[in-house]
Sequence to fold (244 residues):
Amino acid sequence: MWTYLAILLSISVIFLVFVRKVVLYYRKPIQQPNEAEKDTENDSNNNKTVVSKKDRDRAEALCKKGLIMLKAGKEDDAIKCFVQALALNELHDETQHRLAVLYLKKQMYGAAAALFKRLIESSENPLYYSHLGLALYKQSDFLEAKNAYQKAVELDPERAARFVSLAQVYRSLDQFSHAAAALNKAIDIEQENIDFLLLMSSTQMDLKNYKEASEILERVLTLEPKNPDAKSMLKEVKNLSEDA
Fold:
């Protein structure tokens, strides 16, 4: 019951932001053409949501309370506190992020995606794009998930796991050559990661590149001689190559 209420409250907060922006837009006076350029900075400032000190303090207190609830394992109570905090201060990025991560954990992927999209508006943080990609992937929105993960690896090309996540999205789209390219990036970073190598072998099998798949599996068995997955996949590759 509380899970659905939390989603409703989050949607209400996001809708409130939209309404405020619309109201601010239509309240702006019409400018003469020669005034437009010089007033651009003022218009930008007018569009910013003004939060009173009282509301900021209340939001901060609710955020701290939510953290206490989170540490105590009371995730539903933490969500309630974070939602209330955002109702008072909608631009509190730290609270938005904590709430979005909680939504991911609770498999509330639509609500999580909405919050991560808002966070990206204020900061192009690769972590936000990566989490957005996961939320979209879990909703089977593979095209948008691909875009999010591509942006994440563009901003931070040093994290191998993000290339693997991008590869998984490509595989879901049956774009196996792109998946192999992303996995190559991941393996360049973590050359002895068994899971990455097994996934690359599976991708090469999808591409019918049985020789490459076999070589990768032999490499896995060099690193981990008793790996049961590698042994099983190697037998499968040999059978497929013989039938080809």
